[in-house]
């Protein structure tokens, strides 16, 4: 019995000396301490990021800012967590006596290879992060990106999903975005150009357009969409066949198209009531002439009272009516 106890004590002493001399216990304690520090540091930084994002969100009046700030917070937290634990892993390897120089070299070469192979993907994610951070887009905005227009349905770090006027879904990679035209941020302008004949009084036409815009602004149905007084820009262009007059209305974001359509309808009706002519292209018809071109021009005058024709007769082809007149 005593021999067994002595052997056990000798073996325990051996293991104790082995552990102390080899530094296994010390290394294990160091690794545990590093893991604890990494855990605490990541928790503190992530909590600080959360507080900063909450303060940023409270300073924003945009109702969609919550989603954007949450996306930024989540992405930043992931980056911080990966960075801290990567540093902790490198320190742990050095404690275990593993040379990290070859690993860093291999990681650098691998990173370069992956960077070349997936540079467009990395560019997409980085651009998407900056896009979310700056708040250039919101879900529901009407935008134009890279020649594509539509309503923003989803924003991710990888791409922007749009739905155009015809219901088609368009995916735009964030890395391909060079400029963004946001038509729904802050306010919009409903711009109306109307052409009138050169013989018309432009001041009278502009006054009629202003009256129409003021009446529309006081309409209860449209008053919540129109947020500014009408701006009479004036004569915009002296075109080939018309004097182009411009009017502008400050409206709610996204309402510029329906306000413009209704304003055009009302202006057309007002011009008709006041006898203001809106010019339009005319078509001139020529009867057949010999190749020599010596035939005199044929002047036609159609009158229901003189010919006794009805409106139905006038709508018939000219050749049918001329044949009937010849027979009579």
What labels describe this entry?
8 strands; alpha+beta; Alpha-Beta Plaits; 4 domains; 11 helices; 328 residues; single chain; Helix Hairpins; SH3 type barrels; disordered C terminus; 5-stranded antiparallel β-sheet
Structural class: alpha+beta
Strand content is: 15-25%
* CATH-defined architecture of the largest domain: Orthogonal Bundle
Task: Give the uncertain stretches in residue-range form.
Answer: 310-328
Number of helices: 11
| Euclidean distance between termini CA atoms | 148 Å
Region (Disordered): 309-328
Family: Belongs to the MscS (TC 1.A.23) family.
GO molecular function: mechanosensitive monoatomic ion channel activity
Membrane topology: Multi-pass membrane protein
Structure in words:
This protein has 328 residues and is an alpha+beta fold. It has four domains: 2-117, Helix Hairpins (Orthogonal Bundle), CATH 1.10.287; 135-182, SH3 type barrels, CATH 2.30.30; 188-274, Alpha-Beta Plaits (2-Layer Sandwich), CATH 3.30.70.100; 287-328, no CATH class. 55% of the residues lie in helices and 16% in strands. It has a five-stranded antiparallel β-sheet with strand order 4-3-2-1-5. The chain has a three-stranded antiparallel β-sheet with strand order 6-8-7. α2 (24-58) packs antiparallel against α3. One of its GO terms (molecular function) is mechanosensitive monoatomic ion channel activity. Residues 191-278 form the Mechanosensitive ion channel MscS C-terminal domain.
